[in-house]
Amino acid sequence: MKKVEAFIRHEAFEPIRMDLLDKGFPSLSISEYKGSGRQKGITEQYRGSSLTIHLRPKLKLEIVVDDTDVRPIIDTILRHARTGQVGDGKIFVIPVEEAVRIRTGEDGHEVLQAHETEEIPAGA
Ligand SMILES: Nc1ncnc2c1ncn2[C@@H]1O[C@H](COP(=O)(O)OP(=O)(O)OP(=O)(O)O)[C@@H](O)[C@H]1O
Ligand SMILES: [Mg+2]
Q1: Ligand 2 is an ion; residues with CB less than 5 A from it
Q2: Dist. CA 51–CA 9, nearest whole Å
Q3: How far, in Å, from the CA of 43 to the mean position of ligand 2?
Q4: Is residue 92 one of the residues assigned to a domain?
Q5: N or C: which end of the chain has fewer CB within 10 A?
Q6: CATH of the domain at 28
Q7: Chunked mean pLDDT (size 10), the chain, 124 residues
Q8: Does the beta carbon of 38 sit less than 6 angstroms from any atom of ligand 1?
Q9: Pair 89, 8: CB distance under 8 Å
Q10: 7 lines ligand 1 (CB under 6 A)
Q11: Does residue 30 belong to any structural domain of this protein?
Q12: Using CA atoms, how far apart are residues 11 and 60, in angstroms rounded to an integer?
């Protein structure tokens, strides 16, 4: 199992989410964070003085999948997140030791399978 961790622009998320859902990957997590890449910051003028902004708001997307699903996930992210401009983001692939579904106690590969039913009960 691997975790694909992608640092992306906010506007890239919805197209990525829809494409992943289409391809059978509904499970993911996102969080908002601030980060910086290799650029040293953007200098803006504020009331006559210059101010350098080092941290910019971004989204972090985390998806745990079987090893064989890593490449299609990366390709999907690249398709929607790449504009060719600096700050497009980065993708890291991290080994995952174990996964456990709390409801059933099952572990491993089974935990990563998409649900058979389309129904979403309240609280899911
Ligand atoms: N080595 C890293 N470790 C952790 N987070 C990183 C790393 N590199 C980039 N990030 C995260 O990814 C976000 C986007 O990075 P960014 O796309 O600017 O990378 P970059 O290396 O500067 O490439 P580019 O030259 O295309 O801008 C950053 O705001 C940061 O949160
Ligand atoms: Mg950068």
Answers
A1: 37, 39, 86-87
A2: 23
A3: 14
A4: yes
A5: C
A6: 3.30.70.120
A7: 97 98 97 89 79 86 97 98 95 97 92 75 73
A8: yes
A9: yes
A10: yes
A11: yes
A12: 12
Task: Compute the distance between CA of residue 115 and CA of residue 117 in angstroms, rounded to an integer.
Answer: 6
- Domain of 10 in residue numbering reads as 2-38+55-112
Q: Is residue 122 part of a domain?
A: no
Residue 124 inside a domain? The answer is no
Say how far residue 30 (Cα) sits from the centre of its chain.
6
Per-residue b or e along 61-76, where b marks 16 or more CB atoms closer than 10 Å to that residue's CB = bebbbeeebbeebeeb
Ligand 2 centre from 29 Cα, in Å?
Answer: 23
- Residue 60: what residue type? K
**Antiparallel, parallel or unpaired: β 90-95 and 42-46:** unpaired
CA of residue 15 to ligand 2 center, whole Å: 22
- Give the pLDDT score at 39: 81
- And the tokens for 96? 């995952």
Q: How many domains does the chain have?
A: 1
Q: Is the CB of 90 under 6 A from ligand 1?
A: yes
**pLDDT the model gives residue 12:** 98
